[in-house]
């Protein structure tokens, strides 16, 4: 009795090259996020994408090429949404709020993004690799810098504040929020709300004329 030959791994019947490429990129994000840079081998990524290693090499010549393309795909996904949020209407603080809100939405919609970025950052730090495969939260820094520059030009930034230091602090806050992307929805919501109150200057109250704390 003859048996039908098993379908080979690689491009599925009816699938386009772009669909296969997209599946490989998605698998790369997931493998790096779950196992780290070193564990995310070409073989492992190919297995997760349901293609052979040979088929994967038809799309990407090296692992670095693959991860560079992966980072670019993340930027193409996140940058338009983050930029739109950063350029939304309202004052400077409203725009920062909108940027943090959109970043939080992205992390909820694509739960592997934060872990991928964290794994790649650790690899760059350990081996001093070039930063051309970094993605995710790093696109936020340039957008924060734009907002801070607008604040400097319209006079809403304190004159004694160093703009670069302000960008550093706000970026550290934004990156810290992504580090907590795996928390429960309630904890993540409370953390985000606290960060926004800190930016607005409403987290702490000062003493009134009697020396008592204002609530």
What's the short version?
It contains nine helices and no strands. The protein is an all-alpha fold and 215 residues long.
By CATH's scheme, which homologous superfamily applies? Tetracycline Repressor, domain 2
The main pleated sheet reads as: none
Mean pLDDT: 85
CATH class: Mainly Alpha
**Beta-strand percent range:** under 5%
Q: Which second-level CATH architecture applies?
A: Orthogonal Bundle
Tell me the series of helices and strands, N- to C-terminal.
HHHHHHHHH
Q: Roughly how many Å is the radius of gyration? A: 22 Å
Q: What is the CA-CA span between the terminal residues?
A: 83 Å
What is the number of independent domains?
1
Going by helix content, strand content and strand pairing, the class is: mainly alpha
Share of helical residues: 55-70%
CATH topology: Tetracycline Repressor, domain 2
Uncertain parts: 1-14
Number of helix segments? Answer: 9
Could you characterize what this model shows?
With 215 residues, the protein is an all-alpha fold. It has a single domain, classed as Orthogonal Bundle (Tetracycline Repressor, domain 2). Helix content is 65%, strand content 0%. It is built from nine helices and no strands. Helix 1 packs across helix 2 (42-49), helix 1 packs across helix 4 and helix 4 (63-86) packs parallel to helix 7. The termini are far apart. Residues 1-14 have low confidence and may be disordered.
Describe the protein's topology:
Layout: H1 17-35, H2 42-49, H3 53-57, H4 63-86, H5 92-109, H6 112-127, H7 138-154, H8 163-179, H9 185-200
Helix pairs in contact: 1-2, 1-4, 1-6, 4-5, 4-7, 5-7, 5-9, 7-8
